[in-house]
Amino acid sequence: MRGELARLAREGQRPTQLFLTCADSRVVTSMITSSGPGDLFVVRNVGNLVPPPGAESGDDSVAAAIEYAVDVLAVRSITVCGHSGCGAMQALLDAEPGGARTSLRRWLRHGRPSLERLGAPGGPAPRLTGRAVTDAAEELCLVNVVQQLEHLRAHESVARALKDESLELHGLYFHVGEAQAYLLTERDGRRVFDRVRAVDLAT
Ligand SMILES: [Zn+2]
Fold first, then answer.
1. In angstroms, what is the span from residue 11 Cα to ligand 1's centroid?
2. How many domains would you assign to the chain?
3. Predicted model pTM
4. Distance between first and last Cα of the chain
5. Which pLDDT score, from 0 to 100, does residue 101 have?
């Protein structure tokens, strides 16, 4: 590891992937993606949220990281990774109107479009391969990944790179208790989170 870090210090970072996930302590990015130093450019926040760009609702911290990863580091993919038992998703489900305007509550407004999507008619809900979705909280975790990918597409640098076909977007769901990752894909017009074999995770 010492030699690898010395090389990275000398040559600078050239990560190929931006990985955006929750701040939850049980989500260990290096374990989920079998990655080491220099592999991932990582953004973590409460609820793996991507505030839409511009307007006053935007968030410069997340937007700056996206812009830097895409325009400067020229990453080839961005992954939004949600996880089971996410406290942020539970808080969104449990939120009552009004109440104190804390930083946490203000931040969680970026998850509200996911909550609205959960209850909206049209478009079948995403499903998991291998088993049924457990409850509303798990469904919201999945829907939130889909929703945040949409917010990501709205960012100028991301839209440009997608148009140039120099960038791919991925959705991932990590189930903590199962130690299992699920990769978002689309089948017969329906969003499906497919179980990822451990060997796939390494790629
Ligand atoms: Zn979380």
1. 34
2. 1
3. 0.93
4. 20
5. 84
Q: How far is the CA of 31 from the centre of ligand 1 (A)?
A: 16
How many angstroms separate the alpha carbon of residue 130 from the centre of ligand 1? 23
> Looking at residue 187, which CATH number applies to its domain?
3.40.1050.10
pLDDT band at 18 (very low <50, low <70, confident <90, very high): very high
- Give residue 60 CA to ligand 1 midpoint distance, Å: 20
81 Cα: distance to centroid of ligand 1 (angstroms): 10
pLDDT given for residue 203 in this prediction: 46
Which residues constitute the domain of residue 159?
A: 2-201
Query: Is pLDDT of 53 > 60?
Result: yes
